[in-house]
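dumping this here before i forget
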Amino acid sequence: MNDLCADIGFKSVNHYGEELCGDHVDVVEQGEDSTVIVLADGLGSGVKASILSTLTSKIISTMMAEGISLEECVSTIAATLPVCSLRGVAYSTFTIIHIKNNTYAEVIQYDNPLVIVLRNGVNFDYPKTEMNIDGKKIYKSVIRLQDEDTFIAMSDGCPHAGIGLAYNFGWKREDIISFMETVATSGFTAKTLSTILINECFQLYGEKPGDDATACVVKIRKREPMNILFGPPSNRDDCDRMMSLFFSKEGKHIICGGTTSSIAAKYLGKPLKASLTFEKSDVPPTAELEGVDLVTEGVITVNKVLEYAKDYLGENKFYEQWNFKRDGASLICRLLFEEATDINFYVGRAINPAHQNPDLPINFSIKMNLVEELSKALKQMGKRIKVSYF
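structure:
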């Protein structure tokens, strides 16, 4: 058992004029330390391609997660999916990255652009073994994992970007490698790296993609615990117990809420100071408390974090906002989305008298829903979440 984990992120852009994407990424977890990631590219574009790629990725990821051999997976796909009358081919191309025990990765590739692996920020030329399954040429690689290894899987819409526009023959693999080498060492998450790559493809297509383009990034990193305290306990006698548990945990500490931070200041015997820097924002200002990494306002700030989290899991349009702004919500996002892998929530159930005003849109159930929804979103990002109520 090591202290490594996999950060997984992907982003797609549709063929111009199409409602559906012909590429599909499926991620299936095998316990806590093993994951099967499949990127499938359906033939053509639109509805038919979307169905082919979705079925292909679902079948492969589910079967491989159950320990069924690659040969059987490929045979099952060939037997299950319809044959294209025009091309005489039965299914989409695919790339499989199988992370095993966070120790090594099995990479299996059929007809998609070859996976790029960056190690220590530069291209790593990994070994490949050629296999023939049902007449299909498939490459298989086994790579022992190291901290900060970055795997970049793509559909062929990425190297085709810019054909006849920015480039005569598309965006070559070596150009994509150079581009990703410049951004991969910046500490960005897998989701942000995939977004940067797809945004560049979108621009090279002149914002009218001639093919579906998908990037899936898997970034290997060390586990990083994070602790977040939100709201005072329902019973005042539990304050010391709650604070003792919160501060005894390793990792960074975030406190959300005015009353909560006052209780923490009293427990630590340190003064709570208003921050001297004020970010122009719709989020209330932060505060400073020795022994705590970040102190913010409560419900409004956490609600903004949730808004950013939902966008991060979808279009990821707001990543430039929370990546660079200095308000409380943006700072929490950087800590939770980019740094943390294991997040411990300490949630107080005390009812804030200020929230009982019928003219205010905040009440106790909204606060609890915020915690529930944020926990769910962070789990979808691949974080390990533990919530303790007081």
